[in-house]
Design goal:
two-stranded antiparallel ribbon
């Protein structure tokens, strides 16, 4: 499973498969859900976590992360591009790698390993 390069603004589009390139994060800031919503399937945003871009607004890209669909990480945490048009926190994934990592997350495992 080899990720493609860091996301560039020229590839920004809804539905694009991406991976989280930051450090593994857990806790209420990542997984807090709206009152009354179901608990997230996953308890953290892993380095390498798969997701799909849901809102491709250049200065606040939202990603729906697998297992964290109703969590803060998916509906409130956005990514901005740098001066060169790169989103350093997001890497592009192939459909195959996305599905492999998605399956691992839903099985309660880290996305890579």
């Amino acid at each position: 499973m080899v990720a493609e390069p860091v996301l560039d603004i020229s590839r920004l589009s809804a539905g694009l498969f991406v991976e989280y390139l930051g450090p593994t994060e857990s806790g209420p800031d990542v997984t807090m859900v709206h009152a009354g919503d179901a608990e997230p399937l996953c308890d953290r945003l892993w380095h390498g976590h798969p997701g799909a871009i849901s809102e491709p607004v250049p200065q606040h890209v939202l990603v729906t992360w697998v297992g964290l669909e109703e969590a803060v990480a998916s509906f409130a945490v956005g990514f901005s591009c740098d001066d060169q048009g790169s989103y350093r926190g997001l890497g592009v994934l192939s459909a195959r790698d996305f599905e492999t990592r998605r399956t691992r997350i839903l099985d309660g495992k880290p996305p890579t390993g």
